[in-house]
Amino acid sequence: MALIYFYLIIFQILFGSNMRTKDRVIKFPVEKSISPSSYKVPPVILARTPGVVISGDYLIFLRSFSDPLYSIFEMPDCNYLGDFGTLGRGPKEFGRPDARTATDFEKGFKVFDTRQGLLFIDITDFSVNRGFEIEQIRLPGELYILNDAVQINDSIIYGMPYVGKSDKLYAKYNILSSRVNYFGKYPSVCPEKDKENYWAMLWRNSVIKPDGTKFASFFARMKMFVIYNNHEVLEKEVIMNIPDFIFDAQRRKGNLTTFYKDVKATNEYIYALCLNESEGNTSMEVWDWQGNPVAKLNMENQIVSFDVTDDNKKLYCIDQMIVDKIFVYKLNPILNQTSSQ
Fold first, then answer.
1. Which residues pair with 172 in a beta bridge?
2. How many helices (H) and strands (E) in the chain?
3. Per-residue pLDDT band at 327 (split at 50, 70, 90)
4. What is the mean pLDDT of the chain?
5. What is the pLDDT of residues 157-184, one digit of tens each?
6. Which of 12, 194, 245, 281 fits 16 for a cystine, CB–CB 3.0-4.6 Å?
């Protein structure tokens, strides 16, 4: 027995940096399959990197790389109103907007543009005369290629530093003072050496709690997430599945799995779209803001982007292949069930 223990210690010393955390199975209070209803729309739901935002009476479908950039639908029945938005450098044109960063505000939606900064797009007049207005917040030069950007309040923007800019997990830009700081440790599963090579493996989807007190990041290449408060303090790290090759550049070539694809939130819950590529199905995981599991919902179709109503009653979703339907999943009986347990 002593000899076995000795060899185990030697093995950990020699190979410990390559060992990964074993899969952790999370038990959700509710796990079930759900089916959607759908609204028929013109065949405009097509984009390589789409986004979906619910803002007041509108649902906005967003594209990043092709005109028109934005399609507007009237809630709740997804009545198609029209399109707008052109790529270019002229007045009221867009440089390189990232549809995945879009969120709502009281007059429309905001989106990060890697050429123009943070854009607030006012669509209050769209239903009358197809009008829209743009307000721009420019970013400092070192943050123009800011990935996974989110605005936590009127003065603070968080994002993922571009490769080589920092060994911290987040960049912080103060709009009022124009100062840039960096914070956040790499996840605990990252080996200590060669951290500068891990940037591509740390791609994530972040979301702000609407009241501005917290934000969460769900990782694409590792099934895990972290929750920080608005003082940049890590509150929770939940690790579920870390592929054993993820930090080995040679082994991971052509072997990558996508876990979390899109994340949205209300003040009560975080909704994380998990592709489960290795299992061949798509699920919506619901977590609370303490990092506790609430529900795992197996989706009937291949959802690629979505948003949730503020009252946690409905998910409005876009399918990966279907270009003429918006799918709606009802949540209120399911989440009511979890709250009563």
1. 158, 181
2. 3, 25
3. very high
4. 87
5. 999 988 767 778 999 999 999 999 999 9
6. 12
CA nearest to 265, candidates 103, 69, 93: 103
Q: Is the pTM of this model over 0.85?
A: yes
- pLDDT digits 0-9 by tens, 22-57: 577 899 999 999 999 999 999 999 998 899 999 999
Q: Which residues contact 74 (CB under 8 A, 6 or more apart)?
A: 57, 58, 59, 81, 127
- In the chain, % of residues over pLDDT 70: 87
- Give the pair of three-digit tokens for residue 123: 């669509």
CA 284 → CA 109, 236, 248, 275, 321, distances in Å? 24, 20, 29, 9, 18
Which of the 8 DSSP states describes residue 341?
A: -
Give the pLDDT confidence score for residue 163 in this predicted structure. 72
105: Cβ contacts below 8 Å, ≥ 6 apart: 55, 120
Reduced DSSP (H G I as helix, E B as strand, rest coil) percent helix, strand, coil of the chain, to 5 = 10, 45, 45
Distance CA 210, CA 265 (A): 7
| Cβ partners under 8 Å of residue 50, min gap 6 | 61, 62, 63, 99, 304, 305, 318
- 329 burial (CB, 10 Å; 0-12 / 13-18 / 19+) is buried
Give 302: exposed, middle or buried? Use CB within 10 Å, 0-12, 13-18, 19+: middle
Least confident residue range of 263-267, 312-316, 319-323? 319-323
State the Cα–Cα distance between residues 206 and 227, nearest whole angstrom: 9
Structure tokens at 46: 């097509």
